Each structure stands twice: as C-alpha cells, then as structure tokens.
Amino acid sequence: MTRFTQAELEAARDRLVPDVVAGGLRVLFCGINPGLMTAATGHHFARPGNRFWPVLHLSGFTPRLLKPEEQGELPSYGLGITNVVARASARADELTAEEYREGGRLLREKVVRLRPRWLAVVGVTAYRVAFDERTARVGPQERLIGDTRVWVLPNPSGLNAHWTAATMAEEFARLRVAAED
After folding, report:
1. Is 125 helix (H, G, I), strand (E, B) or coil?
2. Positive or negative, the Cα torsion across 159, 161, 163, 166?
3. Rounded Cα gap, residues 142 and 52, in angstroms
4. Could you tell me if 44 and 28 are in contact, meaning their C-beta atoms sit under 8 angstroms apart?
5. Which N-terminal stretch is annotated as signal sequence (predicted)?
6. What is the pLDDT of residues 146-178, one digit of tens each?
7. In a 3-state reduction of DSSP, which class is residue 56?
8. Which CATH class is domain 6-180?
9. Does the first or last residue of the chain, that is N or C, have fewer Cβ atoms within 10 Å of its Cβ?
10. Cβ neighbour number for residue 109 with a 10 Å cutoff
11. Cα separations (Å) of 78 from 33, 38, 115?
C-alpha cells in the first residue's frame, strides 16, 4: 500500500470518490463518507485499520479477501459501494447534520434509480441522522426506498470498538442470507 504524507492526505480533503455501482445489485453498501486515505487512493474503505474488506469476506459476500484497489470486482458479486456524504474528511464528526440530511435525500434518489435489492448503511448514527430515524438500531429496517429494503450495519472503522470483526461478520452474514432469498 502506498504511504501518504500528512500533507498528501490533507490535499485529498473534500475530494470526491466515485461510486462502485450498477443497476440491480443485490446489496448497495453505503459508507458514511470517504476518509482521507480513501480520497487519496480513490478506493473505498482504504484505511488499513478499516475492517470492511475483511468482514465482507468473513461474512461470505466475497469468495476471497479483496483489497480496496479491487473494488471494481464488487458488481460481479452483485455488490456496490456509495456514501451518505460524498465529500472526504478526516473524521465523520466533521460533517454537519445538514450534510447528512442532504446526503440521505441524494441517496434515496440514487437507490430509486439503481434499484438494489438491499441498501446497507454502515453506521447506525449516520443512518439515524440522514433518514431522521432517531431510534434505529443495527439490523433490517421497516423503511423501503422504492422496492429496496434497508439494513443498518455496524461501522467497520477501526475506531468502532463496540464491534469486533467476528461480530460484524455475523451481522453482515445475516444481511447476506436475507439478500439471497
């Protein structure tokens, strides 16, 4: 993996990272927003401490552990990635509630257009703010966006100490089973 200086990472601030999407996916994963490492590399969940890629594999979504730079393979598994908020930042707490709400509005439009079977938001707090669902918990939600079901997953950031890779993989696997039905 390329090592970036702090100046190079800061230069990636506010950079946009293209979605990895296609129409009719089984699951469209939705991160909070790109981190600076993701923006610098152009690859989603690129920070070394992020557990998204290992958990995706451990849960059975992918037959092998993919590297962030292999994100383009996701649509072949019926998977994609987008974000609630498009702009990159060092930490999610740099985002405003207004950005989350606007991101939720834009995400709904994207989901209606792409029609994935499931939208999986990784981060319960982001989901709560973006969709004004203050009591939402990890798991399947009552909300539908068009015909798309919604599932909230734990945030795979290394900063989320409440969940281990194993317990996250169990929750991701629950979604995988639901997405196969």
Report:
1. helix
2. positive
3. 24
4. no
5. none
6. 999 999 999 887 666 689 999 999 999 999 999
7. helix
8. alpha beta
9. C
10. 10
11. 22, 22, 12
